[in-house]
Amino acid sequence: MSALGALIRRDIRIAVRVGGGALIGVLFFLTVVVLMPFALGPDLALLARLGPAILWLGALLASLLTLDRLFTADHDDGSLDLILMSRTPLELACAAKALAHWLAAGVPLIVATPVLGLLLNLDGSATLAVALTLLAGTPALTFTGMIGAALAVTLQRGGLLLAVLVLPLSIPVLIFGVAASNAAIAGQLSFSTPFSILCALSLASLVIGPFAAAASLRHGLD
Amino acid sequence: MRLSGRNLRCLRGGREVFAGLDFDATAGTAVAVIGPNGAGKTSLLRLIAGLLAPAEGSITLEGGDGEMTVAEQAHYLGHRDAMKPALTVTENLTFWADFLGGRPADPATCIAAVGLSHAAALPAGFLSAGQRRRLSIARLLAVRRPIWLLDEPTAALDLASQRVFAGLMTDHLASGGLVIAATHGPLGIPARELRIGGEA
């Protein structure tokens, strides 16, 4: 277990250092959400209605932005060879890397949501609902995105491929994340149904993601 | 302990790199893999490290830990140094010591053994090529593995560092380890030659 702890600590440390992925994701999220009111105009009712969708789209794109380096960075400098050779099962190492990525790049997005909700005219309870759905849904984005990141490892400039591979997988997360947020805000539909499905998506990807990523890394050995 | 390969055949991208290759390495001895560029020296090391699958043939280890694969008992020192530029020398080495596990040696001692104590708090991105190589060598010392697979280990090392490294390899052999090194230059220790692909 100390090996996995060391891997998580290292990845978080790299992500928060200068040039790391954590800050880039949050800044991108901030940029997308700040630009939206300027593009849509000062219609407060419209902004509040679109708010959850905008926040979710921003979070989805921001987490994709930093995911493509999840394995390529380790592949390029030879670390991946040593991780493959180590006594730690590759599936667990993949899970640890994804967890570190979520802690370093996903959690800051959730923390930034209340601030950004102000820009979209969302009231306190609505912002809280969006933050809660992001908390439940972003692990699914990271753990499914990891599969694409592992597939992209052996390809040069796999970044675009990652987006093409991962976006279809993240559509269910987006649908139920926005549905749960809107249900909490409008109050007409049940919040717990889409929220439960969102949690289920996260739990399923938590199990499938590491195995699929490890399999594709082993297959891509060269 | 005895590591041997029989009738190994290696394919890279559908092209045959070598075929019918046999090798033997026993505890306490070093094997120098020599041959021209592209002959398959690196491919052989990666086959042994389990990072490539042989198209034919097998690699067996007698007298090692039967519970573990060859890769899990080996250190691989490749062209790429597996060190993160954003982390300091000590952080990099401490990570590999913790991640590779076992009973890691004190990272500060290993850094001192390769003469990098003065740079211990420096981010690895600021090191020169030779210093980065020395940091990779410190990883071999941080965690004990009986099999050392070294790809051009002396590349970028100055003469003094090459002598230090030869001393470290001698200590490793004396403690019952074995070394397989792909090299163009002299290793600095007595080694049996394994020639791949004709005259260099």
Short description:
By secondary structure, chain A is mainly α. Chain A is built from nine helices and no strands. Chain A has one domain (2-219).
Secondary structure: helix percent of chain B: 25-40%
Largest sheet of chain A: none
Percent helix of chain A, as a range, is: over 70%
Task: Give the helix/strand class of chain A.
Answer: mainly alpha
Q: Which word captures the global form of chain B?
A: globular
Which stretches of chain B are poorly predicted, pLDDT < 50 over at least 5 residues?
A: none
Provide a count of the helices of chain A. 9
Write a concise keyword list for the protein shown above.
heterodimer, A: about 220 residues, mainly alpha, B: about 200 residues, alpha/beta, Rossmann fold, 3-stranded antiparallel β-sheet, 5 helices, 8 strands, about 30% helix
Q: How would you describe this structure to a colleague?
A:
The complex is a heterodimer of chains A (222) and B (200). In chain A, helix 6 (90-119) runs antiparallel to helix 7 and helix 7 packs parallel to helix 9 (192-219). Chain A has one domain (2-219). Chain A has 222 residues and is mainly alpha-helical. Chain A is built from nine helices and no strands. Chain A is elongated. Chain B has 200 residues and is α/β, with parallel strands linked by helices. Chain B has a single domain (2-195), classed as P-loop containing nucleotide triphosphate hydrolases (Rossmann fold), CATH 3.40.50.300. Chain B is 28% helix and 26% strand. Chain B is built from five helices and eight strands. Chains A and B meet through helix 1 and helix 5 of A and helix 2 of B.
Layout of helices and strands, plus pairs?
The complex is a heterodimer of chains A (222) and B (200).
Chain A: H1 2-16, H2 21-40, H3 44-67, H4 69-76, H5 79-85, H6 90-119, H7 124-151, H8 159-186, H9 192-219
Helix pairs in contact in A: 1-6, 2-3, 2-6, 3-6, 3-7, 3-8, 6-7, 6-9, 7-8, 7-9, 8-9
Chain B: E1 2-12, E2 15-26, E3 30-34, H1 41-48, E4 56-62, E5 74-77, H2 89-100, H3 107-113, H4 129-142, E6 147-151, H5 159-174, E7 178-182, E8 192-195
Parallel strand pairs in B: 3-7, 3-8, 5-6, 6-7
Antiparallel strand pairs in B: 1-2, 1-4
Helix pairs in contact in B: 2-4, 3-4
